[in-house]
UniProtKB/TrEMBL annotation:
SUPFAM superfamilies for this protein: Metallo-dependent phosphatases
Annotated ranges, domain Capsule synthesis protein CapA: 5-226
Superkingdom of origin organism: Bacteria
PANTHER family: POLYGLUTAMINE SYNTHESIS ACCESSORY PROTEIN RV0574C-RELATED (PTHR33393)
UniProt xrefs under Gene3D superfamilies: 3.60.21.10
Family as reported in the entry's similarity comment: Belongs to the CapA family.
Protein name in the entry: Capsule biosynthesis protein capA
Amino acid sequence: MNKLGIKSVGDIFLKTSNNKNPFINIKGKLVDDFLLFNLETVVIEDESNYNVSHKSVNLSTDKNNLRYLNLSEINIACVANNHIYDFGDNGYQETIKNLNKSNIKVEGTQISEIEFSFYKKNNITFALANVYLQNTKLTNSIDIDLDNFKNEINKIRGEVDFVILSLHWGHENIAYPSPEQKKIAHELIEMGVDIIIGHHSHYLQGIEEYKDGIIFYSLGNFNFHHYDIKNSIYNDLSCIVELELRKSNNDKEIEYEIIPIKINDNYQPEVINDKKMKSEFFNYLDCLSNKIIDDSFTWRFWYSTLFENYMRGNLNSWKIRIKKYGIKEFLKSCIWLLRPFNLLLYYHFLISLIEKEKENVCDFQKD
């Protein structure tokens, strides 16, 4: 039987608070045939030379920090996300150039349609696409057009053994995908995708085995720090996904294991070795995963769970933008508070208080 190994991790920005190697504590854990990660920053030399996007938080990292990414045999950066244009198109182009110079493969550079890359080792081939699925006007986001996805998957399905999608999607600082994300994930698996790996929530989310596919809704942060909100334990819980793709004649298998991770105060991921904390981690992950397939996983539950962190995070972002850009941002924030999505959020949150919906959330007991 032929085997191929892929390690996958969440959001990284290649920084620490003391300018040390972000991955010094887990470097050996990331060695495999392939390493897949979400690069949540631009990588440039001097950010003052670039136009800054009109945002509350703009992320950049010195290009010299790319030396820390020599972690696996083939390292793959996923760049289809909401920070890759933080310093304009020039910052984006410079980032791609610097990644290429460092022999790091880049996924997610498409502008308006899905594009697959092909990888092969040990007589096993897989197709990989990185897509930013957001209802935004950002240059690198793609409309959620499942017919387009189906056409592209049908084109390559017979050419490869496995199809993997890395999706930047959903909302930030929430431990659950939305029912809409679940619906989309199921449809993608039915179209022929074998593995879905999600990012963007900054929280670890559940895992679902659906039909012949596996959905990792979000891997959360991995080497990351938040500048617009105070980090919570949920921002610091993460994991390494160890995937093993197997093929024997016409038979194919996917096996996976989870290495539990906690990010320390220096933004560095560390393996959770403490028995009690490790047990609590997997209890929490099991709760998140079971919740997704439970009958209580409804829109109302999701909205009520989203409300607190969504409002706190966005209001903090508006405060930063008002301070940076002036009174016009205050007027924009007032309009934002009344947008249809938020009105729906307020409604479901108030109903959930009456029905005590939030009593069903998953908690991580760190003590």
